[in-house]
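Weekly modeling sync, notes
Attendees: AB, CL, MP (scribe)

Item 1: holo prediction request
CL wants a bound-state model with fe (ii) ion before deciding which constructs to order. AB pointed out that an apo prediction alone won't tell us much about the pocket. Agreed to run with the ligand included and paste results into these notes for async review.

Input as submitted:
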Amino acid sequence: MVIPSSISGCLDDAEVMCTHDARELEAITNPAVQAVIYIPPALPAWVPELASAVQRSAFRIPRTVLPKASRNGIDDWLEQNLPKAIVTTGVRASLKADILQNVDRLHALSHASQFMLRIFTDEPTTECGFHVDTVPPGAPAYGFLRVYNGAGTEYVDPANVTSIADFHRYLSRRERLVRESKVARNDGRKADYDRLQREIGLLDGERAFLIQRDEIKIAPAGSIVAFKHIDIRYLWEDHSKALAWIHCSPMTGESRLVVNITIPEPAAHIAPRARGGIPH
Ligand SMILES: [Fe+2]
């Protein structure tokens, strides 16, 4: 496949920015910025109340994808589906407004009018190791992630990655092992399943795509991460490190509320920066 020069160039000086200023989330449109992690100086009071309800599995949302929805569509869905009478109406309203604020941020950056929302509460699993997220062909290649509680999201500094080719070797082998492991479990082949799980653990422990294998960074729960997603056409290409944030959800611990917002199609008018700035 021929990769456009804009993505095959030498943007290996990719940067992950950490900030206490939400306005800096808009830097995600900078080609050299792989991710912007906004860590609020203090979490608003509604977040711990929500976190407690998620942690004790009282506030539950099944894994849901709205593949293409307007802001109003997302607003309606949240109104109808966010659990009621589990947290106070104020906490529920704050969560809804918070999710919509990230939709607005994405709109301000891209001028997109349709969004993909992924939302769920669930306990961590070992299914996904380090990976990158994708967007459909031609869609703006960034999105927003907020995990409201639990363990943080692990990620690696781009300068610590040996090469994208090495990362792809890890990723493809891990995906194969997970597939085989599921088949072994469904077939009731316990010994094979256990062996495959051990192999997955070894692979994750080796982290052969890293220069410093123990140098793992954390985006803490409560932070908002704007991060580069890879256009799915280029997922397995030897692209620049700037094009995708290599990250890993926790594999153990309490149930978490996870919300991810992306754009499902090429936006009509892509603005490199928000015209009027993004809400903060
Ligand atoms: Fe991800």
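Recorded for review: The longest strand covers residues 115-122.
Action items: CL to compare against the apo run; MP to circulate these notes.
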